[in-house]
Amino acid sequence: MKPTPSSCIDFKKHLDRFIEINDAEFGQILEYFSIKKLKKHQLLVRAGDAVHHTYWTKSGLLTSTFTAPDGKEHIIQFADEACWITDQNAFYHQAKAIFNIAAVEDCELLSLSFENREKLCAAFHKMEHFFRKKANDSFTKQQKRLLTYLTSDSQQRFELLLQEYPKLMQRLSKKTLAAYLGVSRETLSRFTKKG
């Protein structure tokens, strides 16, 4: 199913944060995307599979997780509305996924294949510019999270989570939030009582 400009106003606003496009260009850009719907708990990407698409979250919430050899699951990313998500290495290098990406809630996504992304960037240099600026923005956030994880205590990591994802407390279980922060559920409960 193809998205329509009237159903993707939030995506236009997202693009407008990084580039200037008119309504006609936006309609043409949407031609490269398709709509993907997921039910709660459904997998979008499975570790070990090929990854041919990247996704923009129109509605819903997803998590990207990595399962270590010891069986421990690590939450790498949350993607709520207006966030992009995929297994980056698998998508850009046409490799096998190492992450599982699953819907925490029912989701509606804009899906962009690797092939269509290349065609889109060739046809609209503004979109090439968008993806470069968006990648820079994402790298900065990932670096900040990594430094926070390496140098900050669990309270500071919790505060960064609230800053980046202010509405997640109501949308995720304490178990999931605690796993993301690398703390026990009891520790997380202490943080939430302070707030």
TrEMBL record:
Residue ranges annotated for the Cyclic nucleotide-binding domain, each copy included: 36-122
Domain of life assignment: Bacteria
Record has Transport as a keyword: no
InterPro entries for this protein: cNMP-bd_dom, cNMP-bd_dom_sf, RmlC-like_jellyroll
The keyword Transferase is assigned to this record: yes
One GO MF term: kinase activity
Pfam families linked to this entry: cNMP_binding
Alphabetic keyword roster: Kinase, Transferase
Name the record gives this protein: cAMP-binding domain of CRP or a regulatory subunit of cAMP-dependent protein kinases
Lineage, uppermost ranks: Bacteria, Pseudomonadati, Bacteroidota, Cytophagia, Cytophagales
